[in-house]
Every structure is written in C-alpha cells, then in structure tokens.
## 1
Amino acid sequence: MSEDNSGVTAETVKKIARLSRLHVEPDRLEFLADEMNGLLAWIEQLGEVDVTGVEPMTSAVEMAAPMRKDEITDGGVRDKVLANAPKTEAGYFVVPRSVE
Amino acid sequence: MSDLTKLSLEAALAGLKAREFSSVEITKAHIDACMDAADLNAFVTTDFTNAMKSAESSDAKLAKGEGGALEGAPLGIKDLFCTEGVKTTAGSKILGDFTPQYESTVTANMKADGMVMLGKLNLDEFAMGSSNETSYYGSVINPWRKDEDLVPGGSSGGSASAVAANICLGATATDTGGSIRQPASFTGTTGIKPTYGRCSRWGVVAFASSLDQAGPITRTVKDSAIMLQSMAGYDAKDSTSINKELPDFAAACDKGVKGMKIGIPKEYTMDGMPKEIEDLWQQGIKWLEECGAEIVHVSLPHTKYALPAYYIVAPAEASSNLARYDGMRYGERVEGDNLYDTYERTRAEGFGKEVRRRIMMGTYVLSAGYYDAYYLQAQKVRTKIADDFKRAWEKCDALLTPTCPSAAFAVGREVNDPVTMYLNDIFTVTANLAGLPAMSVPAALDNNGLPLGLQIIGRALDEETVFAASSALEKCAEFTAKPEKWWV
C-alpha cells in the first residue's frame, strides 16, 4: 500500500529519527529498520479494505466543534510556569544557544 | 472491626456516612495495606501524609452530615493524571520530578467530592503497553499468581493490581486501546471506559488524543458507576468534552436486562484462544438469556482491521503529542553539543524502547509520501469499523464479547515481540476506535485459577445499558474469588 515498496531502510530510519528528534546510534539503524518493516508488514493488511467513497473519521463522537469567546482567562503565573524547568535564570527559561 | 479494606466502595461510603467507622480509620487501614504490598510495585508515589489530612477533613464534614459523593474514601490515581503538588511521571523517566502546578479535571472533580488520594499508581510508560512492563518505575506484579510472577495487564496495571489486592477502594485509569478493560480482566476487577468525551482529558498526560478516555477500575459494577459519576462531566477546557447531562449511572445498574437485545459478534474469536474463554463467552450468553435478555447474532466484519488501524492512528497521534518533551520547559534534560543534539539526547535517554518505537512509527506514517497510504487509510478503516457498530445497533442494544484472548501471563514473557503483545487488545480496541462505552466484568477463573473477564459494549452515550447488562452478568457470575495474599 505504500508508494515505495522497498520498505524501510537504515537510511529511512536515520531520517525518521531525525524528524522524531531521537538520537539513534548508527549500529542500531539496521535493527530498527527490520523492526519497523515487521510492524509495517502486519499493518499492510489494511490495504485489503475497500474504502472507496468512505470519509476518514476525524472525531470519535459526532459533535459540533464548540465555540468560545477569544479572551484571556489565565495567566500571570510566571513562577508556576517555570517551576519544573530544568534551568531558569531571572524569570526565564535557559536553553542551549540556537543561533550561532 | 471487620477488615475495612475488604469493603466495596459502595459499602465503605455507606459506612462512612452512617459513621460506623471514620475516614481516618479506613484510610489508615488502606495505608497499612499499601505498605504491606510494596512487592506489587503498584505505586510510583504515595502521599500518605496528605491522605491522612484529607481523611481528617472528611471526618469533620461527615460529622456535620455533609460531604460529597466520595467523601472520605481512600482511592488511587493512575500516574497519568496531573495532581497539583504531587509528582506526576506518566511512568516515564523523561518527566523527571515533574510536579504539576495544576489539577486534572477528573481528579479535581473527585477531590471536590471528598476523595482521599492515597497516591499515584504505576502504569506503562505514557500508557503504552499491555503488561505494565514498560514503566520506568518497574513492572507491576499481579496479586494473582501461578508459581511465578504474572503481569497485571496494562497500561493501568498499577490501578488494577491495587484494586485487586484491596489496597485502594477503587482507582482511576485510562483506556486508549484497552488499558482499563484488559488489566481489569487480568486481575479479576471491574472497569469501564465510558463514551469518548464523558471524562475531560484536561490535565491527563496525552497519548493518542482521539482515543484516550478516563474511567474507573473497581471491585464491583456499582462501584464503577459511583466513581464514574464523580469523574465524568462537561469541561469547557477539553474541546472534545461532551456537553450533556450525566445519567444516574448507579441507578442504571439496577435496571435489569429483561427485553434487552444482546448482540454476539461472531468475529470476536481468535486463533489459539483458549477454549475456556470460548466456553465462558457461551456461559455469559446463557446467563444474560436467563436474566431475560434476547440474544441476537451480529457481524462486525472489519474487526480484524481494528488493531492495525490502531497501530497507525495511536502512534501518529503519540508522535505529535510527545513532541512537547524537549527538555526545555519541564522534565529531564540531557545536555548535548548544540540545541538539536540536546533535544535528541534528552528524548533518546528519557523515553523507553516502546515509546521510542511508537514515536518513530508515528513519525513515519505521517511523513511526506506516506500520509495517504497509512494515516488516511487507517482513518477511513476507522469509519468502516464505526459503521459496523452502527449496523449492529439496528439489531441489538449492547454487545457481549470476551475482554481478552488470554488470562494474565508471566512477567517478561511476551515483551520481545511487539505484535504478540499488541494482540492483547484485539477485543477492546474497537470500542476506542468507535468511541463507544465498554466495560469488563470478572466472570470466572480459568483452569490455572486465574481470572477472566467478559466485556459489554454499548452505544455512544448509553453507559446506562452497559451498566445494566454488566450488573446482570456480575450477579450471574457471582465472582467472589480473591488472590491468595502472598505479598505481605
């Protein structure tokens, strides 16, 4: 059912790991590719289902999206927001340099 | 005084109200039982000091003839619900010592109703698992044993184990693919996943948002009704919360099944399923028939596609939900060479194997070029599964099925094969995909003396029928077996 039938390769895993922001050691790539291919082979059976004209489900229970006023209902809790941060300074999050 | 830990929640609440015993007494009895049961590893965090304080304040209210629907009852909370000032881990290393500054709506409702919270119960990491072996805080052990340690099921393994071992009167749980009902079946307890949207998801650590739903695990059907009444209700902070009046769930338990049409879906069987589960299902059919229900045979032809569809939808949503764990704003951070390296090392070390596997799968099925083939296809199959149920509802009011294809298995047995583990949820996952209420009721012991459950699935928003049919099953099954106490 996938457009590319060659399956997941070590190269694909590397790309997916990068998109997932997960560090993967190079010697694990092949193993993970095999594991993903195993799961995908099991999942492929979904391709048997004729879904012509079927709408994808977007909500588990039929209901209209509720509307609300666009107004500020919360805030002014800086210390609570920072309470669990791994690193803070002077009321700010401290993060690694992102622009060199 | 008789052993206060053996009471049902219903009986305990009645006894508290009648002042036959105090909340301090029953809370103390449960704290002692919790401390004796450390080998079960059911708790990640206990909060006994605050529990005793809550008990005292409940007693003050009860003395004045006041108090809410759960006043003074010692209960456990799955460690997926954020609790203000009490560490919340989701069973993961990545959250570190995360201590919420706010309370989930479900636990806030229960606290407003007077619950005494004993602590936070262990679970599979981010609720991803069917055996409670993926928790960073170690496996939970089932109080039921057969020569070796058995899993309590998952992901709400701590909740199920604690309720089965009489160390909590009841516990909250959550169910994304079967995480309330499968552990209930494995531990001889009762649990309901209500209709999607009944319980607010606000403040519950998110796994797969279109499937996640909270519910109780208890020792009786009526206890589940009492707890759900408190947990559920409209919440503007969850945009998928159902804005409808709650029915009286406890009253529904006494309605009986006379004239009710119970559907038997022929697809709810599996190669290699023990004959005793098949037999128990037939027994369940007989029981409901004897109580006056009419049995009809129905077909849910897309049942076999539910699990593969789930293993696209759930990881896809999880990969998106778990993107927030970046080590910047809360939780653990592992410093790397630069920002990206910090992200990648934080997440690789903070998430366990099963969670990483699902994030990668989810990222893959949502990635460019694969979205239509996988995610869109799965969401269409999900519509077909929901349509199967809609057709069944033309012929019946509720469905009766086995809860699981097996009894509890040994710790460490199946963890190396993801698909084998995923098959645990084959009979439960359909209700999540279609958003339907479903309940597991303990019905018998197998040849090894281990509990087996039967499942009732109902129409959306019709928990009342689910409670009525489940109560009837409970009465007929007369399941009173308890695990032999080996853990003290």
## 2
Amino acid sequence: MNKTVRVALVALLCVGAAACTKKQEVKPQQPAPEPAAQTQAPVSNGKYTPADLTTDACLKQRVVYFDFNKTEIKPEFQQIMACHAKYLQDRPTAQMRLEGNTDERGTREYNLGLGERRGNAVSSALQADGASASQISVISYGKEKPVCREHNEDCWSKNRRVEIVYTAE
Amino acid sequence: MIKPMRKLSSRFALILLALAALLAGPAAAQSLNVDIVGGLKTATPIVVVPFAQQGGTPLPTDVADVIRNDFNRSGKFRALAKSDIVEQPSRGADIKFATWRLLKQDYITVGRIIDAGGGMLRVEYELWDVNKQQSLLAQAFTAPAGDLRGVAHQIADQIYQKITGVRGAFWTRIAYITAVGLGDHTTYSLIVADSDGYNPQVVARSKESLLSPAWSPDGKKIAYVSFESGNSNIYVQDISTGSRQLVESHPRGINGAPAWSPDGTKLAVALSFAGNLNIYVLDLATRKETRLTTNNLAINTEPVWAPDGQSIYFTSDRSGQPQIYQIPATGGSAQRITFQGQNNAKAAVSYDGKQLAMVQGNGNVYRIAIMDRSLGDQVRFISPGPLDDSPSFAPNASMLLYAATDGRRGVLYAVSNDGLVRQRLVLADGNVQEPAWGPYRQR
C-alpha cells in the first residue's frame, strides 16, 4: 500500500471517528496529495500548530488558481480555504498575506485591479470559514510576477493565482 | 516601391546600430536598437544631403542621417537613401535641380556645420522646393557638439512643419520601463530617451516593478508607480535633479495609474484603500484627495484627462468587461464611450481631444485601436497584436508609441497615426515596456 493511499485511508477514518486528534493523524503525511473528498474543515477538536504548515497536506497548499477574468473560488479550492481559515482561528497571532496575480492578457493597471479582486475573493472565503479580517492582508501584483512566461493557456492558467504567504506563523 | 524601401530600412538599421555602438558610453543606459518595419509609397520624397563640415574635429553625429531617420519613421516622408545621393551641394546656390527632379524628389535640404569656437558648432541649413526651385527655409542653430542630435531633430521639426503645416514632434523625449534579468533578479529601470530611442538616461531603478510613467505637462517631472516598498506607491520625480516625492502610499490597496491634469496641478489616480479601485483626483499642492467615481464593485482605473481638463477618461469593468468611460473632472455620472470589441482599456487622448487610442481585446488578441471622436467614434487598428499594450500619442498625434511582445521579449513600437509605418525599438537584453511620449520641449 503506498503512502498516498494510506494517508487517504487515515483521512477517511478520521472523518468517521470524531475523536481523532488532528495533530497526530496529519503529522506523518509527507507527500501532498490532492485533498480527499472531504467537505468539512480538518477535524475540529485538534488545533493547528506552526509545524503543521510544513507537514499538513492541506496547509501546505498555498496557491489558489482562477479561470480567465474570473475571481470565483473554484470548488476544488474550498478545502484549502477551510484549513487555512482554521489555522488562522487556531493561531490568533498568525498573519497572512494574499498575493493576487493575473495572466499577461490585458493592461497592467487593470490587471492590478483584477489581482486585488482575486486576493479579496480568497480573503472573503477565509472569513466566511471563520478567519478574522485582521489577520489577512491583500496585495496585488497584477501581471508583474508571472511564474510562467509562455504565451499560451497552459502558462496563463499557472499565472492566474493567489499565493498564500504566512508573514507570522 | 516596397522593395527599395525594405533595402533602405535595413541599411538604416545598420547605420543606426553602428552609431548606437559608437555612442554607448559607460554611464549611459542600454541603447535601443532601431528597425523600421514597412514603408509608404504615398509619402513625400525628400533629399537630405549630408551636411558639409568646415573645419574642426570629426563630429559624433551625422546630422543628415538623424533627420532622414526622423522623416522615414513619420510615415509622411520618404528620405532618399544616403547611397543614392549623387551630388552633395551644401548651399542652395549649388543645387542642380534637374538632378533631383530626375530622381523624383519634391524637396531638398542642404546644410553645413561650422566651428563656432569655444566648443560650439553653428549648423546652417536650407530647405528648397525642387519643382519650383524656391527656397522655403534658411535657418541656423548654435550648439555644442554633444547636442547635434537635438539640433538635427529641431531641423526635422521645422521642415516637417513647413511642408505639412503640422508642428513636428521629433525633438521630444519618451519615457519607458526596462526589466532586465529573470525572476527575483530582475532590475527595473525608468528610462528617459530622445524620441528615436537615443540618449537613454536612467531616472529611477528598482528591484521591484515600476510601471505607468506619466509626464508632467511641462516635461520636467514624471509620475510613476513603484513596488519598491512592497506595495504599489506613486512617486513624482524631477528628471533633471532626481529629487522625488512620495505622493500616494495608502498601506491598504493599490496606489496606481497616475495621470497629470493639463495644468500640472493635479494627478488623477486609481486607489483601492476604501475597497474596490476608484478614480480620485489628488491636488499636488494641498495633497487633498477627491473621489471621482462612486462605483462600489467595479475596477475603475487608468484615468487620463481630456486636453481641456474638463473630463477624465478611464477604464471600468462595471458592465462586465473593461470598457472606456468618461466622467466630468469635478465628478458626476460616467458615460460609457466604447462599444466595439470585447474589451477596451488604457485610453490615451490626442492633443486636440479628437482621437482616443486604447488597447482593444478580442479573444486572445490585443491590438491598439484609435477611435475618432470627430468621426462618429469610428474605430481603426494601428497595430497587429497579439499582445499590444500602452498606447501613447506624440504631442502632435502624428505618431504613437506602444508596447508589444516579440517572443518572450517586450519591445516598443513607434507607429505612424495611420498604422502604415512602424519602427521597432528593442533593448539589447531584457524587456522594454510602458512607453510614454513626452510633451514638446522648450528651447
């Protein structure tokens, strides 16, 4: 049984068994699998610690991708919203910066606005999941900081993103 | 006529490249390579004979070459190639008009450069009508050898105005941003150069993005956006002294898109500290901000003033896609101006307010469009795309600058207002972007 499958099983068991403590279950996870079909925030009675930022499969995911000219959070990123919102709730001293980015199409200043709108969308989603606005700041880089520089959709889809950066853990 | 034109352009490019190599000093910014794309057979044929030099050391600038290049990229003139100039008179009295009539030339410029002592040169020139054998201009400039390019552009301006009736805009400057290096090692520079890309000077340098340079109406200052402190902030910098002021730095949200009012006392800016991006007018003396747009959901940005100062054009996506709107400069309701194309953004206005240039996006193709407000808002394209950006009019609206991509590289184009003649300005290494054409210079 490979590690990914084992992790998924543990996650499923956890959902069923209300008494699992988050920290112990999640610690051994090394690879970062796609979040399993889990709709709830990670187990509610275990609190995240800064160590989880480097080990927890969900918390390790720090990039939210968007469709062209869109600012809606896609369903596949809802779980990431939930675990980061929980982290902010668990760690009231933690601070997060959301960095909004766009693809290269369109003018620079308009894209600054679009990147900010995406950052704000992530901020709203985190707050809807219980995070405090005072822990979150949003900055937009528009199309100034691409991670990919080819002129095609594959590349553009990598650039339309919000990066989650913890400035205080 | 197309073929000789191509030949001419490549020859020009070579000459200019050689000149650029000669002129590149250690303190100067990277020079732009210059290449002319396309030609125009309806352009007026003109001869610019190499200027005779009387005494003194060899000159750093071929004045006639600079003038010829100005004429060719304007789209209005077609300068006879230097190698086809079979006779080299330097005074009107020595011109054999039959020679130039045979070569189908309409106008001829001759000139001479005289050592005026004390490091100064006296540049005299004459413009003649070939068919009428009539003198049209006879002028002289006195300048140091280091300013010969400036003198050449001023001569080109005078000839352009004499023949077309429109003030020339060759003796002007342009600003643009260069990005050299990759990723975290990118260096951004705000550069000011002559209108043909020569004499580049670094105005500001940053490890973080610089964007949206905007000339003050007197040409002495540039407002721009810098991310050097982390967030986007707006600075106003004096070009000659280098001193600068931080004029917008709300810690929350975007501080972007500065645009000078025609009287130079205010900046229109786009700020989002209150939520979404809205247009504000900043009084530079009192630092008072007045909110102009009242939309609470849309992106409202890229303001630009109409030349009469009465209204401001801006980009807004309040209807879904970005489009150009117009609002009174004192506030009020905004009117949508653009209805053609999927989206339109970043308007630039001609000096007379009659033309709006903008970036029009259709699918994945973004081109520069000009909308003629005096012709029922007809729209025409002046660039081929696919990722063109940042149109900026020359002060006489005869030409525009815009940014484009060539492979992975950002390049600038100067294009005639009819879109028929384009000149590419390429940095040897790195990207060139965000061009802004400055105002007329004061003598």
